[in-house]
Amino acid sequence: xxxxxxxxxxxxxxxxxLVQDYLEAEGYKCVLAFNGVEGLELFFQLRPTVAxxxxxxxxxxxxxxxxxxxxxxxxxxxxxxxxxxxxxKIIGLGIGADDYVTKPFSPGELVARxxxxxxxxxxxxxxxxxEQTIRxxxxxxxLKEYMVVAGGKQVExxxxxxxxxxxxxxxxxxxxxxxxLLENVWGYQHVGDANTIxxxxxxxxxxxxxxxxxxxxxxxxxxxxYKFEGGSL
Length: 233
Hints:
It is built from 8 helices and 12 strands. The chain is α/β, with parallel strands linked by helices. The strands form 3 sheets. Strands 2-1-3-4-5 form a 5-stranded parallel beta sheet, sandwiched between helices. The protein starts with a strand and ends in a 5-residue tail after the last strand.
């Protein structure tokens, strides 16, 4: 697993180094910046996993820095501030921060908050990745990349082959006529074009099925059309 990198932007060196010590004791890697401009430069250079920002920073304050980072990334951002009013917290959270810690704070509490934000971020990232990938035994369809892996090997599909497979796999168990597949994948209905589906299904089976003559993914429903199964034998 790639090591998490935490960007700490704090102009008080003692506080920055104290937070760094606590985080590194927990196994995190840290990088320090002591003004907002330097913090933004390090963000673009290193692309950290989490940003911990003080509000009162020289050259560029933490609110503007938070706004700039949020415009480029959805990583967790935690703001540290001596300002304790509800208005300040609302401003910080309103411009994209995920959490707000008031000074003086317990370094242990800050570490716990960073861990919580990381868990949430990684969980949401995993959910998003799973939503963009259709998985069945022996078959992965990566929707965003237009990529298919069958039997552990990447297979080359044309755009329409991919779209047909993704549509069928995204509607597991549902039977579609050739005309319905034409309408949903090609976007039209035309008498005489149904053979197009037959040709594309044959090509797909040759590319993704372990044994195209005995398909386990794209099944024929005689007299009706096709349906997608989960690859069980």
